[in-house]
Design goal:
Bound molecules: zinc ion
Strand order of the largest sheet: 1-2
Number of strands: 4
Radius of gyration: 30 Å
Order of helices and strands: HEEEEH
Distance between the termini: 84 Å
Shape: rod-shaped
Number of domains: 1
Helix content: 55-70%
Strand content: 5-15%
Amino acid sequence: MENKQNSILIDFLNNSLKEYENKMEEEFEMPTPCQKCGKIFDLNDGTGSVKWFPNTVICQKCGDEEEKEVERDDEIQDLKSQIDDANYTIKEARSRLIELGVDVPLRVHTPDY
Ligand SMILES: [Zn+2]
């Protein structure tokens, strides 16, 4: 008796799973769960992740968010290296002026310099 009930339950679950899979296949050619948000998306519509999950395709929405974050990181890096370059230029110009015998009284007051 118990076995029969179990097999009915298993059939029911299997059918539900099949229905779910069929539904997914109708909507998506290659249904894929997003590593970032867990949402199911079509692999063809996804975006290759570069920072969060390298070599993994994530959903388009998360891909857009990641792109914004990467752009922000790039800008921060760029601004930092602009400051480094400027500090280097000032330092080099000062020591060359001193070499040329020019009195360089000006001191640039920046924390890093
Ligand atoms: Zn996502």
